[in-house]
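Below is a filled-in request sheet from our internal design queue. Each sheet records the structural input a requester submitted and the sequence that came back. We keep these sheets so that new team members can see what a complete request looks like end to end.

REQUESTER: design group, bay 2
PRIORITY: normal
MODE: inverse folding
CHAIN LENGTH: 239
BACKBONE (tokenized):
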């Protein structure tokens, strides 16, 4: 597209605004996961430089409408997953939405000195196992989780096999939490979180912190980071 000057394209605000608006409409007409035409094809379609298209696509990525997939280019982002905040299996919640859950174990360790908030909740007499996992839904990163449990409830070897549901494992052992609380706050991801979740550092995330108990005894302390545009959180309310 050597006939088009990207600087003049961007300086022509009305022209760029028309292209950006038209591209948004085109994306919104796609089904989730459907690929957009390539940057080259879009540049040819509108008679502009590829840099102009790249900037317009970047705006849609930041808006959560488009995802960049390695080997596939730009695709329409999936609709947000509605997640009920409850004590239960994350994988089961995804299956309820007809999504395929996958788990990548990033780290398993026995922590002698866990973070202060973890130590204050779980105590230190039993030791603490830390499990860091990346959770996917249909191949899309949906949650980066760090879970701490008492070492008398989960061994290192068991933790290394947790590609399925932690709560299902605890339930089979008769150790599933029966009470707890969870807090949520909005934030921006750090560089490692943005890379793992495949989001721009400017994309808002939810930070969830869970403290779970069994028979009034502390069992689990967990922190999760979820891209805000990929998740919708809802909370049952009781009087």
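RETURNED SEQUENCE:
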């Amino acid at each position: 597209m050597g006939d088009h000057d990207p600087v003049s394209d961007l300086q022509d605000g009305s022209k760029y605004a028309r292209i950006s608006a038209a591209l948004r409409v085109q994306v919104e007409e796609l089904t989730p996961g459907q690929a957009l035409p390539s940057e080259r094809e879009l540049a040819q379609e509108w008679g502009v430089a590829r840099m102009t298209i790249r900037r317009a696509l970047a705006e849609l990525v930041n808006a959560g409408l488009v995802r960049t997939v390695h080997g596939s280019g730009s695709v329409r982002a999936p609709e947000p997953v509605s997640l009920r905040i409850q004590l239960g299996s994350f994988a089961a919640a995804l299956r309820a939405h007809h999504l395929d859950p996958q788990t990548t174990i990033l780290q398993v360790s026995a922590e002698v000195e866990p973070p202060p908030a973890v130590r204050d909740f779980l105590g230190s007499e039993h030791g603490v196992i830390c499990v860091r996992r990346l959770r996917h839904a249909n191949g899309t990163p949906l949650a980066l989780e760090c879970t701490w449990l008492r070492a008398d409830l989960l061994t290192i070897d068991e933790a290394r096999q947790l590609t399925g549901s932690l709560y299902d494992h605890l339930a089979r052992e008769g150790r599933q939490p029966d009470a707890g609380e969870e807090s949520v706050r909005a934030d921006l991801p750090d560089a490692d979180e943005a890379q793992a979740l495949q989001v721009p550092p400017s994309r808002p995330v939810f930070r969830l912190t869970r403290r779970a108990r069994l028979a009034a005894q502390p069992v689990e302390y967990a922190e999760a980071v979820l891209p805000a545009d990929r998740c919708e959180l809802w909370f049952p309310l009781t009087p």
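SHEET NOTES:
- The two ends are 63 Å apart (CA to CA).
- Residues 6-76 form a domain with the Arc Repressor Mutant, subunit A fold (CATH 1.10.10.10).
FILED BY: M.R.
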